[in-house]
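INTERNAL AUDIT FORM
Audit reference: QA-55
Scope: verify that the stored structure record matches its stored sequence.
Auditor: D.O.
Record contents follow.
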Amino acid sequence: MAKRLPRELDAEGLWNYASRLLSGRSLTIGELQKKLSVRAADAADVEGVLSRLKQARVVNDRTFADTYSAVRRDGSGFGKARVLRELANRRVPRLVAEAAVKDAYQDVDEVEHAVAFLKRKLRLADPAEHLRDPKHLQSAFRKLRYNGFSSNAAVKALRRFSAEAGELEDDAVE
């Protein structure tokens, strides 16, 4: 069975489609542009709709990036690099994303943030006992790195629970 192609929309149809998309969740300009381009009968209509949305202050990548960074920092406990990576995936311009993340993390002690992240993810009464096993220590290090913490902060956080974390410094390059 052939895949059904989406119906092409004129300028007014694109406006309604964009409104429907934005009523469900916040989107970046890049995400919205991609979704609208697929449905547009005329590519020029996409820029017109985006322009109207920007003028109405319905879409703004800086506001989106500021809010997203704060939520990912506080709600998920992620580090800077993870938030930057996610913003890039959401098509936020690099300079806008970097400025938002810098503002969101300016008063955050990265090591303390990493320790809190580890405690929440491990959910153990005694993380030090768990991290005595080199496999668990390596796993925790990888988990911290994947979730946006620098190698240096990850090693310092792990040192709070395990003396063997110093051996990870050889692998850490930052």
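Auditor finding: record pair retrieved intact. The two ends are 52 Å apart (CA to CA).
Action required: none
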